UniProtKB/TrEMBL annotation:
Keyword field contains Protein biosynthesis: no
A GO term from the CC aspect: cytoplasm
Name of the featured protein: Calpain-5
Superkingdom to which the source organism belongs: Eukaryota
InterPro entries associated with the record: C2_Calpain, C2_dom, C2_domain_sf, C2_III, Calpain_cysteine_protease, Calpain_domain_III, Calpain_III, Calpain_III_sf
Recorded family membership: Belongs to the peptidase C2 family.
GO molecular function annotation: calcium-dependent cysteine-type endopeptidase activity
One Pfam assignment: C2
All copies of domain Calpain catalytic, residue ranges: 1-80
UniProt GO BP: proteolysis
Keyword Protease: yes
Residues of the active site: 13, 47
UniProt keyword annotations, A-Z: Hydrolase, Protease, Thiol protease
């Protein structure tokens, strides 16, 4: 018989650490905002054997547990998807191209090139159901690089950036090096229309802004005076050539900023070059068909960045992408002064908000 401590831990069992958090203790009403709440550091562990529960401090129903804030009581997040409907989230693996993007989608950012990313996908334990003929599902995940400012679900499959093998296992793990940018993870079962609950964990060297991508398109405002987007413009800024020299070595550290209808997307900095390649892709949901796409080129400095030039590009409704080479002009008082350099970009506008 396994030895068990008086607080419920079983000697010899391997417990998984799922979180380390700073937990606030005490009341959570308005008056508590003006007082000093006690805080302690806690480690959240999970027993993979699923038996013999912790009964020490902060166990279920204990005095300490009742004093914690509701948000701190959340355990590992298990997400279940419905099946058998047109809007399900059980589309199967990449082989099922018609339904693959119906699966749950999660976005995350990589800040530096060749950053190491570790992805862990676990399904809910089904070993207790073996007597009913129920076994673990075949699971895996697929990673795609997307536009730098994507906020809504992906509607067109992109090239694979990384991914796991599919296995009939409790969990799958993949470690990879990714370039800077935004990515979408799609966890799936191998076959479509298979319902399952899962835990997805992501590890990067820096904050990755990971979150579920739940909506297909921008949501309609409750205020009738606020118009809804009617166009979707995709802009790909390949790079620039022959920019103005900025230092005594005849080089620069340029980056570009793309703007449209109040939204702003910034590229990474390319170091020591007058011919940068950003390969920056961004999406703009436009409410005004007459609005333009503005591009600014800046030189990164320690104290204050310097503008190397700007350009404005029209983006009318069109069925095919247009490649343009646009000249740069100065800002403010120099808006009519031509600046050194040419920016190469590709632009396309559609009235189908589900195109990409």
């Amino acid at each position: 018989m396994e030895a068990r401590t008086e607080v419920g831990l079983v000697k010899g069992h391997a417990y998984g650490i799922t979180a380390v958090k700073k937990v606030y203790i005490g009341e959570t009403n308005l008056m508590s905002l003006f007082g000093q709440k006690e805080k302690i550091y806690m480690v959240r562990m999970r027993n993979p054997w699923g038996q013999k529960e912790w009964n020490g401090p902060f166990s279920d129903g204990s005095e300490e547990w009742e004093k914690t804030e509701d948000v701190e009581r959340e355990m590992d997040l298990w997400i279940a998807g419905p099946k058998g409907t047109e809007t399900d989230r059980a589309g199967g693996c990449y082989n099922n191209k018609d339904t693959f993007l119906q699966n749950p989608q999660y976005r995350f950012d990589v800040e530096a090139d060749d950053d190491t990313v570790m992805i862990f996908l676990m399904q809910k334990d089904r070993r207790a159901l073996r007597s009913q003929g129920i076994s673990h599902l075949v699971i895996g995940f697929h990673v795609m690089k997307v536009e730098a400012n994507r906020r809504y679900r992906l509607h067109a499959i992109k090239d694979k950036a990384a991914g796991s093998e599919y296995a009939m296992s409790r969990n799958v793990f993949h470690r990879c090096d990714l370039k800077a940018g935004r990515y979408i993870i799609v966890p799936t079962t191998f076959e479509p229309s298979q319902e399952g609950e899962f835990l997805l964990r992501l590890f990067t060297s820096k904050a990755n802004n990971a979150k579920e991508v739940a909506h297909d398109v921008p949501t309609q405002s409750m205020w009738p005076c606020i118009s809804y987007p009617c166009l979707l413009t995709k802009v790909f800024v390949k790079g620039a050539t022959d920019l103005e020299k900025q230092d005594r070595f005849g080089s620069a550290d340029p980056y570009c900023v793309v703007k449209c209808e109040g939204e702003r997307v910034k590229s990474p900095v390319c170091r020591e070059t007058l011919n940068p390649e950003w390969n920056l892709t961004c999406l703009f949901y436009r409410k005004n068909s007459a609005s333009t796409v503005k591009i600014q080129i800046w030189n990164s400095n320690v104290v204050m960045d310097t503008c190397l030039g700007k350009a404005s590009v029209e983006a009318p409704l069109q069925s095919e992408p247009i490649i343009k080479e646009v000249e740069l002009y100065g800002r403010l008082q120099e808006k009519d002064v031509k600046k050194p350099g040419v920016v190469t970009l590709e632009i396309i506008t559609t009235d189908d908000l589900l195109s990409y």
